[in-house]
Write a structure and sequence with these properties.
2 copies of one chain form a homodimer. The two termini of chain A are 39 Å apart. By secondary structure, the first copy, chain A, is an alpha+beta fold. Chain A contains 10 helices and 30 strands. Chain A is globular, with a radius of gyration of 24 Å. Chains A and B meet through strand 17, strand 18, strand 19, strand 21 and strand 22 of A and strand 17, strand 18, strand 19, strand 21 and strand 22 of B. Strand 17 of chain A pairs parallel with strand 19 of chain B.
Chain lengths: 438, 438
């Protein structure tokens, strides 16, 4: 199975656990059998690997998520990197061109496209396989998954099938309706459009060449920023007449809001939380070290990260976005391909962060124009390279770097560093990367 | 007026803003006319100074609060330091001996004792003056303030007066009753005992010599830790027959719980809080830098400090103490006589703190047995002394100190330092102080 997982979104609805660099699919919220927590993207990835260990999984995503994906899924995962955000049609065209031009697959091979963030069980992945097999038959150019609605949702688009069979021709599509209209759709046998579909590579490549002037994957990648923002539904699906829908009646949840996300939590709380038996239907996710004590609350969500603290009535939590939009966008923590960092303190002319490097990993070799830095190694062993000079470091060592000086740090064991940044224009944009001569 | 302000309590009921080193009276929660915030102790102190600029104010408190008092009231305030906690009778005896033996006042002078944390207005301090003047007349050995009850509280002791006059003999005292009994007391004209009273110094010194074998202030201070824990009410007031009570009918609130404290807040929130109009009767005090967003809540208190986060139904918040008792007692922030510190990060073998020194102030000259330290100066100018060697420091400088090395830092301007502590036994108890040879 060739599977293209679309990993998008800024995830402001799940603030403060998601932010501009960590989308909701990277929040570790699902308890696994060994007692650790995994994210939506980890959960989906391992679910697929369990059903089909040979599955050719590609994650289509933007540059900003690449570090987080490597951090959570390892270095071996295949990523189709979108140089910038251009909606689903260009993203799917790029990933499809990658399968054909880079991985060398024939135009007759099928691919299944699926968002990375539904909360589902194994039967969903069996259904994806069936979707791919149906597309391989060539009865239709596109085979969509139609999810059997469980309530008249106003959040989803609807697919109206011609028949009630397991596989049917698509009659038409309907945009997100109000609740009353949704009821009439459902009475007609309508299904939710979850953005899941299968096709032969040749079909999407043909559509792509119709709409975009490009030669191959490399060329498409090059001119990606000039492409028009357009959704796959609008550009392709809604204009296609040879199109089928296959029913899916299993568990499918879109965990896009705190309200729906907490329904999928096995425990009431994650992190340092002091239990209090006067609370009812309260969910807490605490990523801070400090304890949260809650007393006498009902139907409330509490969530805390270095970005901030949310305390919301469950229903009200769906309306979070405009409030989060007003926040300043200082990134307070992030997962990188080499580890993670967290902002500890910010003053007018300084910032103090804690950097954790995974064993064997290193930062880019880089310099800053407008700030000096001091590394205080607090745990582990490694090597720093400062303007080309190598030096071993261990817990207790201090390294000072003036603005302009090129530097990196390489972790031998897990390495923890308190980094003090000093300057009047501290910004994540003040960074020049260099090739490291090994 | 000689005023002895009793500053006691650990303030766990107002966690996380109060902790083992910051009692509730030091929380800055009252907005002043210039837009800044002041604490209970600051509010009371400046209220007295306004009524009577010549007032001789002495704060009777334990060692642990001395730094916070100097930080909030300045270096000039008179403090009667209790070497350890021994309840109110020894504390009042010690403060009274200080007035007599150190400040040289005659036995005929009067003193007024009053807790530092009632929420009151100017008429209260007028009443304190009247109380002192009544005691000066010598009609009684003790003159108590009797607060007119506003509801049948179960939290206070009651004074039963002989008459309903403004000044009356005391008939008897009643311990904290249940609500029904409180109603019958109030029907008899009972008044709340707020722990406020006036006396001539000679009277309390005589009682002190009766109960404690000591010579003078210095001797009493010396043997303070051998004294029995006993309250002034039990040791003196309840056994005295020449005792009067003076009525007070003005505003008097005991802000001992979140519920009562928030009633005295002028605004709904203090600190970085994102307003949301779907909340009703919600009070938020946020001492963290990160924002708090709350949505759709009712009758809720949210309070956040580096110690932790409380989210509580207002009524439930009164029952906080047992939960706070269970917390580990790592102090995460503190106000010191020289400035303040805040813990930023804790790992197994390290702790990172941010230290702020006020201009002209310095730490004690000290060393640690079991930890190395690194100072990263991030703002200001000053001088460090390391094993007797002086050195100027400014923003960007780094100083490393091995375990055993004696060190201090002196602020010329306001000085901010990121201090990294490294060792396997990091504890506030690992500190040896030394005399600094200037």
């Amino acid at each position: 199975m060739n599977l293209i997982l679309l990993s998008g979104g800024s995830g402001k609805r799940l603030w403060p656990l998601s932010n501009d660099v960590r989308s909701k699919q990277f929040i570790k919220i699902f308890r696994t059998e060994n007692g650790e927590y995994e994210s939506m993207v980890q959960r989906v990835y391992w679910q697929i690997k369990e059903i089909d260990p040979q599955a050719n999984i590609m994650i289509a995503t933007s540059k900003t998520q690449v570090s987080a994906i490597h951090n959570q899924l390892g270095d071996d995962v295949t990523i189709s990197v979108e140089p910038c955000r251009r909606d689903t049609f260009p993203a799917i065209a790029l990933a499809t061109a990658y399968l054909h031009d880079v991985q060398g697959m024939s135009e007759d091979e099928t691919a299944v496209v699926c968002p990375v963030d539904p909360y589902v069980e194994q039967d969903y992945f069996e259904a994806l396989k069936n979707l791919g097999e149906q597309a391989a038959k060539g009865e239709a150019n596109l085979v969509l998954m139609g999810i059997e609605p469980t309530y008249p949702s106003e959040k989803y688009g609807y697919i109206i099938p011609r028949s009630n069979g397991n596989i049917s021709e698509v009659d038409t599509f309907r945009e997100k309706p109000d609740s009353e209209t949704a009821k009439t759709y459902i009475a007609q046998g309508a299904l939710w459009n979850g953005g899941v579909f299968a096709y032969k590579l040749g079909y999407v490549l043909e559509k792509a060449h119709e709409l975009i002037d490009f030669i191959d994957y490399a060329d498409l990648y090059q001119k990606y920023d000039t492409l028009e923002k357009i959704s796959f539904d609008y550009a392709v699906a809604e204009r296609e007449s040879k199109i089928q829908v296959m029913r899916f009646g299993g568990l499918w949840k879109d965990l896009g809001t705190w309200n729906t996300l907490t329904e999928a939590m096995v425990e009431d709380s994650i992190g340092n939380v002091i239990p209090n038996d006067t609370c009812e239907d309260v969910h807490i996710v605490n990523e801070l070290d400090m304890p949260i004590l809650c007393m006498g609350l009902r139907n409330v969500i509490i969530s805390a990260s270095p970005e901030g603290i949310l305390v919301a009535d469950k229903e009200q939590s769906s309306y979070i976005k405009p409030y989060v939009d007003k926040l300043n966008n200082q990134i307070m923590f992030a997962e990188k391909s080499w580890g993670s960092f967290q902002v500890l303190d910010v003053t007018v002319d300084s910032m103090t962060i804690k950097v954790t490097l995974n064993p064997g990993h290193k930062m880019n070799y880089h310099s800053h124009k407008y700030r000096d830095e001091i590394w205080n190694v607090i745990a582990g062993r490694g090597t720093v390279i400062i303007d080309g000079m190598r030096q071993s470091v261990k817990s207790g060592d201090v390294v000072t770097m003036k603005a302009g000086c090129r530097h990196t740090i390489i972790a031998e064991t897990e390495l923890k560093v308190i980094e003090v940044q000093l300057g009047s224009d501290i910004s994540i944009h003040d960074k020049q990367k260099f090739q490291l001569e090994e």
